[in-house]
Amino acid sequence: MESVKISEKQLYSIISESIVKILREERSENIDNDIIELISYLHNMQKPLREIHWNTNEYSTHMVTDETIDDVIEWEDTLAEAFVSNTNIELTISDVKPSSDYKTLMEELINKASTIKDNISDNKEYDSICAVLDEIIEKSNQLLYKSQLK
Q1: 48: which residues sit within 8 A by CB, 6+ positions away?
Q2: How far apart are alpha carbons 140 and 146 in whole angstroms?
Q3: Contacts of 125 (CB under 8 A, 6+ apart)
Q4: pLDDT tens digits, one per residue of 31-77
Q5: CA 97, 98, 104: angle at the middle one, nearest 5?
Q6: What is the CATH number of domain 28-147?
Q7: pTM of the model
Q8: Half-sphere exposure of residue 125, counting CA atoms within 13 Å on the CB side?
């Protein structure tokens, strides 16, 4: 068997490329898990939103939670469809326990969506998901503002 000689520079390049590839794959898997967690959060936040909606005596809270429920259902569906079409990963909704307080629910949603967007915004593969996240962040901020009006 003939031995192959490679320079130290070539070896360094091969090792560096391998490390970058492993980190990208690991990062991609983590991003996918974060997106699945966000979809699960959207799914599971519908119950506490409905409870807030039904049990409030304030007209503004009743109206804003009604609007939020409609948006959350749409975001869950749109994000899940974009995710599955981009990744071909079969979705399973996990049991995430969201807060029962409207402000906390919305702040957690905004934080989760913003974190994921920050991690994927430089990857063209996730453009359709970024568009959904932009909508979630923008509209959630508007709904949170509306909820504070009396």
Answers
A1: 98, 99, 100, 105
A2: 10
A3: 86
A4: 888 999 999 999 999 999 999 999 999 998 899 999 999 999 999 99
A5: 155
A6: 1.20.1260.10
A7: 0.79
A8: 12
